[in-house]
Amino acid sequence: MKSNQLAIGFVIVAVVCIVIAALYAVGILQFLASGSGVHIKHAILFGVLAIASLIAANFTRVKTA
After folding, report:
1. Domain ranges (residues) in the chain
2. pLDDT in tens, 8-54
3. Which residue of 11, 51, 55, 61 is 20 to 30 Å from 45, comparing CA positions?
């Protein structure tokens, strides 16, 4: 299923994941994390999810000839 709307949705998910990764990296966000401080593993996870969302957006967009 190829759709530009779906691709835009994946890009929005990627942007949200990047923001969450940045918040985890600087230690502002502690949701689902034990203790306080910087959570690099969570930041890396959300960074990988952002990259995966961008790859999915590339596959779902309608390509012009």
Report:
1. 4-60
2. 999 999 999 999 999 888 888 776 666 766 788 889 999 999 999 99
3. 61
- Using the structure block, give the residue that is written with the tokens 């990764």: 21
Q: What does the block give as tokens for 40?
A: 């690099």
Distance CA(8)–CA(28), nearest Å, equals: 28
**What is the phi-psi region of residue 63: left when phi exceeds 0, alpha when psi lies from -120 to 50, beta otherwise?**
beta
Return the amino acid letter for 6.
Answer: L
CA distance 4 to 59: 10
Two tokens, residue 51? 């990259």
SS3 letters for the chain?
CCCHHHHHHHHHHHHHHHHHHHHHHHCCCCCCCCCCCCCHHHHHHHHHHHHHHHHHHHHHCCCCC
